[in-house]
Design a protein that fits this description.
By secondary structure, this protein is mainly alpha-helical. It has one domain. 71% of the residues lie in helices and 7% in strands. It has helices spanning 13-24, 30-81, 99-121; strands spanning 85-88, 91-94. It has a two-stranded antiparallel ribbon. Strand 1 (85-88) and strand 2 (91-94) form a beta hairpin. Helix 1 packs across helix 2 (30-81) and helix 2 packs antiparallel against helix 3. The mean pLDDT is 80.
Length: 123
């Protein structure tokens, strides 16, 4: 640590007693014990913030993957609806898939995904 600053702190007697007990377990002074406790608290807060960010990222990815699945399913359904298979005289006749219907379904799905992401997670 460089250039430490001196500060005054008021602590309840019970808390000061806990600091003193910690000091007796391996610190040279109350100041060392308090520095340790403060640093540990700050480190834990940083870890908590990182974990929260990671969890939020996982939630977003999961949400996106679910929408990808749903939109793929929707596009497949549109594609299946746009083709007809008929059996006439033992032959299969296949009507062409309308690619524009598939593209329209995917575009709509992307718009819904963005709207839902903003609703659920914010900008």
């Amino acid at each position: 640590m460089t250039d430490p600053k001196m500060i005054g702190v008021r602590l309840p007697a019970e808390l000061l007693e806990q600091v003193d007990q910690l000091t007796e377990k391996g610190f040279e002074s109350r100041s060392d014990a308090l520095r340790y406790l403060i640093q540990e608290g700050l480190d834990k807060e940083e870890i908590k913030q990182r974990l929260d960010y990671f969890q939020n990222s996982l939630n977003r990815m999961s949400f996106i993957m679910e929408w990808i699945f749903k939109s793929t399913f929707a596009a497949t359904s549109v594609a299946q609806e746009s083709r007809e298979i008929e059996n006439k005289e033992g032959r299969l006749l296949v009507k062409a898939i309308d690619p524009q219907k598939v593209i329209d379904a995917m575009e709509l799905s992307k718009k819904v995904l963005v709207t839902e992401l903003v609703k659920k997670f914010g900008e």
